[in-house]
Every structure is written in structure tokens, then in C-alpha cells.
Amino acid sequence: MTVQPRRRTQQERREHTETALVAAAAEIVVEAGVRALTLARVGERAGYSRGIVTHHFGSKQGLVDALARSIQVGFVPGLEDRPPGLGRLLALVDGYLHAVSALGTANRAFLLLWAEAATTPELAETFRDRDRGFRADLRVDIDAGVAAGEIRADADPEAVAVALVGQLRGIGMQRLVDPEGVDTERLRGDVTEQWRRALRSG
To answer: For residue 14, what are the domain limits?
Structure first.
């Protein structure tokens, strides 16, 4: 008796298509640069038509938004299982630096797009929103750490969040530009300890 493979649901087919399109967009950014990213090229790379890309994302802006979201979700695994506070904040720093030690195509694309956002208005909104979300998540940990007495009471959550995002993104960019000269695995312990000392109470 032959067992017929289960047919994918419409939602599963949609998710598969979107994943393939986002992956194709990341490959194009890494291989040819941000300006080479067009809906037509993404569709062709993924084996679909431009119309399919437009159907799923609406525009290049929508595609970039989806790419940025897909990369940030789960970038440092396991954080959702930790309670907010200094421990989770330090785990994020350590995990982030570990993740950029082996930058895959998607993460390389994110950093390239993030850098380009400084001079490209259509990218600026997406990455401004992503960074604001990143800082908001960090502030939750800082506020929780202060409330628990783990983080010094005079720590400014916004200032700490801006400094952290700047440092982590900056190290990621250095790793992207000079992978042989920037050993993020070696940096992990030092950077995490620097933040522990800077923030801890007492």
C-alpha cells in the first residue's frame, strides 16, 4: 500500500513561498548590493514571477521589512525562556556576539541593509523601527534589573540601550568588513563582563 504524501495547506504553501523569496532577497543583497535588489530579480532568483513577489509583499519596502523581521526573530535563541533582568541582558550580549561569529547570508544582508539605511530613505524607516524595537526590549531588561536590585538605580535605560545597540551592531559591522581581524568569539567574555561591571548594583 502506497502512502500518499500529505498535501500542504494553503498557509504552509504561502509560508514556504515567502521564506524562499526572503532568502533570495538576502542572497541578492550579499552578492550584488542593495541597489541590485528588485522585485523582478528576487522572483527570478527564487523561481517565481515578479507578480508573486508583489502579491506577497506589496512592494520592495514590504520585502525589506519582511527580510529585517525574519532575521531578527530568534537571532539569539533561548532568551524567551529567561526572566527579564540583568541575566537575560548579559545572555543577549553574549549570544549576539556568538551569532555574528558565523554570519550567514541573511545576517550579512541585514547588516548591509542597516548600514545603507543611513543614506537611503526607503530603508531608514524599516531599520529605525527595528532598532527602536531592539532598544525597547533592552529597556525591559534594564528596568527589571533595576527593580530587582541587580542593576544600579541610576542607570539610564534609554542611554544604556542606545550604547548596547551601537556596540553590538558596530562589532557586527566590523566582523562583516574584517572577519579575519575581528574575533567575536574571543570578545564575548570581555564585552559581557564589561557590561556586567558597568550595570551591576553594589
So the answer is: 10-65
